[in-house]
UniProtKB/TrEMBL annotation:
GO cellular component: cytosol
Annotated keywords: ATP-binding, Cytoplasm, Ligase, Nucleotide-binding, Purine biosynthesis
Upper taxonomic lineage: Bacteria, Bacillati, Actinomycetota, Actinomycetes, Nakamurellales
Gene that specifies this protein: purM
EC number annotated for this UniProt entry: 6.3.3.1
Name of protein: Phosphoribosylformylglycinamidine cyclo-ligase
GO molecular function, one term: ATP binding
Protein's GO biological process: 'de novo' IMP biosynthetic process; adenine biosynthetic process
Catalytic reaction equation(s): 2-formamido-N(1)-(5-O-phospho-beta-D-ribosyl)acetamidine + ATP = 5-amino-1-(5-phospho-beta-D-ribosyl)imidazole + ADP + phosphate + H(+)
HAMAP family: AIRS
Signal peptide coordinates: none
Domain PurM-like C-terminal: 187-353
Length: 365
């Protein structure tokens, strides 16, 4: 894991300019690397070759496990959820969100996440804060079964405020060519299963901050009775990582496709895995959105249609499955402690009809 460094250090009058004087400290970067090593090492799989410090990371592809392996990759970030973490000075969970956003996109096509690399840009490098962020990334990688093999920490003095940072990551996975999931497998009569989210996850935080902090002027430290904790704690709840659950489900049942419910909401993302001529008809009465969504809607007078575009509304991952395997799938998810509901079915439709629709009204929302 390569790293650049931090710390403002004025050079003495009459001396030459230095890298530290420009706002970048190599020493702080090296300290950060030392602090993050224990976190990265706990994620290593047998295929990882070498350790932190090289110019590139090495991972031996386990091709002996596959007849026709296909690599899959995904890149993403956490968006403005990081602003909540920075405001509260809590940095050890935002990395879980980062991992979730990339590995759960990978698993949507049936790919097993193999390894991940992160990129952390900051205004001024604080080694302990960077190590705390990386500890969360490592926790997420453990939950997803993938290795954290490297990354980059870069200081951008003059471009970012000293306490600001932003996160991004790329993950690589592998899937047998014959096992790739997607719209070509979806058939009329298939069943739509929704897996419960842990909260807002990592999408829609620009609206969250606008409604709750700018309009309602609420305090992140304030206790909210509906949540049983502070507003900040609710908003920093880590994104649920479904990767290992989805891989197990694909091994044990007749899964046809997955949709990771991120920006665009439930209908928008499910529509991406439904082929032309079919539509996924889902019933809002199948589940009750988590309290946080009603809280946001109430304080901002946000219409349901707008909420459903911006947020997952309580469903973080969707599986399209053959009707004969629904009971088995629900049993697998229950055993893995993933609360799930049957949302609806896949039906034939005209070409002009939306590929995913929602009907009915949410109970108690």
């Amino acid at each position: 894991m390569n790293t650049h460094a931090s710390g403002h250090q004025r050079h003495p009058i009459g001396s030459g300019a230095t890298y530290a004087g420009s706002g970048v400290s190599i020493a702080a970067g090296e300290e950060a690397v030392d602090l993050m090593k224990p976190y990265t090492e706990k994620t290593h799989r047998p295929e990882v070759m070498g350790g932190i410090g090289g110019f590139a990371s090495l991972f031996r592809l386990p091709i002996n496990r596959f007849r026709d392996p296909v690599l899959a990759s995904s890149s993403d970030g956490v968006g403005t959820k990081s602003a909540i973490a920075q405001a509260l000075d809590v940095h050890n969970t935002i990395g879980i969100d980062l991992v979730a956003m990339v590995v759960d996109d990978l698993v949507a096509c049936g790919a097993e996440p193999l390894f991940l690399q992160d990129y952390i840009a900051c205004g001024q490098l604080d080694p302990e804060r960077i190590a705390s962020i990386v500890s969360g990334i490592a926790d997420g990688c453990v939950k997803a079964g993938c290795a954290l093999v490297g990354g980059e920490t870069a200081e951008h003095p003059g471009l970012m405020a000293p306490q600001d940072y932003d996160l991004a990551a790329t993950a690589v996975g592998v899937v047998e060519a014959d096992d790739i999931l997607g719209p070509d497998r979806v058939r009329p009569g298939d069943v739509v299963i929704g897996m419960e989210s842990s909260g807002v996850h990592s999408n829609g935080y620009s609206m969250v901050r606008h409604v709750l902090l700018d309009i309602a002027r609420l305090s992140l430290e304030g206790h909210v009775e509906e949540f049983g904790r502070t507003l900040g704690e609710e908003l920093l709840e880590p994104t649920r990582i479904y990767a290992l659950d989805c891989l197990r489900l694909a091994r044990e049942t007749d899964i046809h496709a997955y949709a990771h419910i991120t920006g665009g909401g439930l209908a928008g993302n499910v529509g991406r895995i439904i082929p032309s001529g079919l539509t996924a008809v889902m019933d809002r009465r199948a589940w009750t959105p988590l309290p946080v969504f009603g809280y946001i809607a109430g304080h901002g007078r946000v219409q349901r249609e707008e909420m459903e575009k911006a947020f997952n509304m309580g469903i973080g991952m969707v599986a399209i499955i053959g009707a004969d395997d629904v009971d088995r799938a629900m049993a697998v998810l229950t055993a893995r402690h993933v609360p799930s509901v049957v949302l609806g079915t896949v039906e034939r439709s005209g070409h002009e009809q939306s590929r995913a629709t929602l009907s009915g009204d949410h109970p108690r929302f």
